[in-house]
Structures are given as structure tokens and as C-alpha cells.
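Researcher: I'd like a candidate sequence for this fold, 396 residues long. If you have to choose between options at a position, lean toward the conservative one.
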């Protein structure tokens, strides 16, 4: 038993005396005077609120102590098509090419290691290539190409099992920052995890390119000159843990499942990430010569100059930490190295404010608690707990 807060909370729920430092269970314990949970049984009165709703998502063993199934299969749909057209015109040989690849991949275990929480990875890639080849007499030719490629992959959760709140049924502690993607909260244990995926990715990649090449034959020399210009747009929308995740590993009781039953997570995560709109340019020019010096000797030489600009964010929303600026969702300003804070749900730094930090992430890594019973974390604003000495608040 770690800390007086936890002891007092369990004493109220169990209705018998519990003291700080007392063992949760020892072999041979049959009385509440010897340990917190006699006979290694946790009474339902000590269960945290979400514990009553979540075990139904954990499948029962069907092969000894393990669970196995082959009922859920990965599925992939991949449709591809292409078309090409060529025509002789007064402008020269005009050619056009179009290609599309539309796909959908369903992974039944994309979010968890148990059935029921699948993810989908969909996308569509397209390319358009237009070219004009024009001859100037018998010794000169010019090739102009316009290219456009668009790639749109995205990953989302497709196996939600509808919890009415951001975390769990009956639990209103975490403010859901992505309400449209609410589902059963993701909960991890030592050997498995449950819950809807907390990772959502959308990437929109547009690439534009112009190329021109001019060739001319002069005697035994074949000269070629040209250049290229490219412009890339990448809109990257990745979110993780916007609606919160929890982890149990046995830090409090020695058993991850027992920690879960009494509501004692070792880790709680909730993050806020905004889209990034990256842009980049590249261009190059070159010249080369293929010289047929003799009937048996051809010399090739040339020079090329390339430039690739650094990528930039079109809205200047580069990730950064401004400790003096208030957040929209993380109002208070915890400082790096802080060892104590208020963790009740919803804590002040999860409430709305009026300004926003462009990109922020908060992760609470909670070691062995000494002054907190994490069962309090599930009970809402009325029951608060303190982050123990030695806990760390990490801002990335």
C-alpha cells in the first residue's frame, strides 16, 4: 500500500481499516487484519467506475490460459487503372498519361491485440503526365513535360464500440479533444491492450514538376541542355491520444489486472497536435555532350547544378514550447522538472482557455506512487489525487 490517500480511499470503499504500507496480499492471508485483500480477492466495492464496463471487451481464454482466434482476417482492396493518349498536332507529338491506385486495407488488430478494434488504412495515389515533343528540322528536338502526382493516405479506427464519454462509460474526467473519434478508451496491460485506436493519420502530398530538354546534333557532337523545377506540398495531420490513454503494469499492487480493478494506472497520456503544412522547392539545370571522337570511341561529359530548398511550414506552426503562453487545453504552465502537481480529472491543464500553443504534448510518467491512490483518477473532479514525489512531467 503506497501512501495514506490510497489507504483512506480503500478504507472507505472496503469499510475496514487499511493502513499505508500494508501489503495488498501475502500468501496465507485470510483476514483484513493481515492484508488489504484477504484470500487474494478484490471486493467489487473497491472497483473503479470504468472497471465495471470494460472487462466485457477482454475475451476469455479458450486455449488453456491463452486466447486465440482465426475468425478475423486482414482484407485488402487495391484497384489500379491507367490510360495513355498520343496525338500528332501542329505543336508536335502531344502525349498524356494518367494513373490511379485506390486502396483500402483493414487490419483487425491494428489498434489492439484482441478482436473488436480494427483500423483501416485507405488511400488514393494519382499521377498525370503531359508531354510535348517538337522537332526543329532534322537535327534539333525539344521535350517539354508537365507532371503532377497526388498521394492521399489516411489511417483511422473502424472498430469502435461506442463509449458515451471520452474515456469510459460513466467517467467524465478527460475532456475529449476529438469528440467525433470517441470510442472505448485505449487501455494497455502487460501482455495485451484493448480500446479504439488513438492514432489518426492523414497525409496530403501534392508534387508539381516541370521539365524541359533540348537536344541538337552538330557534326559528331550531340548536345543536350535542360532544366527542371519542382514544388512539393505536404499536409501532415497526425494525432495521438487526443481522447486519452491509460496503462497498467502492476506498479501499485504487483498485478496489472489488480491495478486496473482498483483504478491505479501507472501512466495517463493525452496530447494535442495540430496539422503541419510543409512546403519545399527544388530546381536544376544541366548541359551535356556526347562526342563521337572516333568510330570506336565516344566521350560523354556534362555538368549539372541542383538546388533543394529547406522545407518550411506555410503557417509558421513549427513545434515549440512557450512556457509563458497559456494553452487552449493545457491552461496552467507546469515547468520542466516539477515533481508535484494536481492530477484530478479534469485537471486544470485539460480545461479550455482562450489562446492556443501551436503544437504541444504532455505526458505523465508516474512511478511508484507514495501519496496518491490512482483509483481517484477515475472518479471525476470531486476526488482528486496528487502526483507523487519523483513523478515527472515531460513536455515535448
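Model: Candidate sequence:
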Amino acid at each position: 500500500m503506497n501512501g495514506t490517500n490510497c489507504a483512506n480511499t480503500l478504507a472507505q470503499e472496503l469499510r475496514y481499516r487499511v493502513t499505508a504500507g500494508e501489503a495488498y496480499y501475502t500468501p496465507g492471508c485470510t483476514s483484513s487484519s493481515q492484508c488489504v485483500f484477504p484470500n487474494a480477492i478484490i471486493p467489487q466495492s473497491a472497483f473503479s467506475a470504468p472497471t465495471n464496463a470494460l472487462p466485457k471487451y477482454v475475451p476469455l481464454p479458450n486455449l488453456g490460459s491463452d486466447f486465440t482466434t482465426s475468425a478475423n482476417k486482414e482484407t485488402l482492396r487495391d484497384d489500379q487503372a491507367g490510360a495513355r493518349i498520343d496525338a500528332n498536332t501542329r505543336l508536335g507529338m502531344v502525349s498524356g498519361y494518367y494513373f490511379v491506385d485506390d486502396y483500402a486495407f483493414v487490419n483487425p488488430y491494428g489498434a489492439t491485440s484482441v478482436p473488436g478494434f480494427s483500423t483501416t488504412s485507405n488511400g488514393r495515389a494519382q499521377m498525370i503526365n503531359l508531354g510535348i515533343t517538337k522537332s526543329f528540322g532534322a537535327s534539333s528536338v525539344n521535350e517539354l513535360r508537365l507532371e503532377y502526382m497526388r498521394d492521399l493516405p489516411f489511417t483511422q479506427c473502424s472498430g469502435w464500440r461506442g463509449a458515451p464519454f471520452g474515456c469510459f462509460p460513466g467517467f467524465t474526467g478527460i475532456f475529449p479533444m476529438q469528440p467525433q473519434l470517441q470510442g472505448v478508451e485505449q487501455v494497455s496491460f502487460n501482455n495485451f491492450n484493448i480500446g479504439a485506436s488513438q492514432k489518426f493519420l492523414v497525409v496530403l502530398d501534392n508534387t508539381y514538376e516541370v521539365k524541359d530538354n533540348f537536344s541538337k546534333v552538330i557534326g559528331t557532337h550531340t548536345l543536350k541542355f535542360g532544366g527542371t523545377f519542382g514544388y512539393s506540398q505536404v499536409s501532415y495531420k497526425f494525432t495521438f491520444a487526443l481522447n486519452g490513454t491509460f496503462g497498467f503494469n502492476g506498479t501499485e499492487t504487483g498485478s496489472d489486472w489488480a491495478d486496473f480493478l482498483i483504478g491505479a494506472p501507472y501512466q495517463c497520456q493525452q496530447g494535442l497536435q495540430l496539422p503541419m503544412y510543409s512546403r519545399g522547392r527544388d530546381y536544376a539545370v544541366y548541359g551535356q555532350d556526347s562526342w563521337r571522337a572516333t568510330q570506336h570511341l565516344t566521350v560523354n561529359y556534362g555538368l549539372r547544378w541542383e538546388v533543394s530548398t529547406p522545407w518550411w511550414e506555410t503557417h509558421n506552426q513549427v513545434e515549440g514550447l512557450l512556457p509563458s503562453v497559456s494553452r487552449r487545453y493545457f491552461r496552467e504552465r507546469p515547468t520542466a522538472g516539477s515533481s508535484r502537481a494536481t492530477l484530478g480529472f479534469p485537471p486544470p491543464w485539460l480545461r479550455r482557455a482562450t489562446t492556443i500553443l501551436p503544437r504541444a504534448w504532455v505526458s505523465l510518467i508516474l512511478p511508484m506512487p507514495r501519496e496518491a491512490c490512482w483509483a481517484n483518477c477515475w472518479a471525476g473532479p470531486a476526488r482528486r489525487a496528487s502526483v507523487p514525489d519523483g513523478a515527472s512531467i515531460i513536455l515535448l
